[in-house]
Amino acid sequence: MSMKDQVKAIQDASVIIGAHGxxxxxxxxxxxxxTIFEIISVEFRRPHFELIAKWKGLEYHPMHLANxxxxxxxxxxxxxxxxxxxxC
Length: 88
Fold this sequence. Notes:
Blueprint: H1 3-12, E1 15-19, E2 35-41, H2 48-56, E3 59-65, H3 72-85
Parallel strand pairs: 1-2, 2-3
Keywords: Endoplasmic reticulum, Glycoprotein, Glycosyltransferase, Signal, Transferase
Organism: Brassica cretica
Subcellular location: Golgi apparatus membrane
């Protein structure tokens, strides 16, 4: 996917889900009110993407993991909760 296509996909998204890491830097292209769901370990907790989300007017939701491994069921349940609150 070209960079232009990546930026367009982010601009068109209403929800962006990702693990903490360089890929989430794409949220700088997101439009205001886009929902960001960041999966992040408490071991590597950094506020970078939360701060970018606030700066851009995005709705930020962290999923704090107890360690560096994600429980797929817990992640899915948290995502369902957020989507329900969004009216989806």
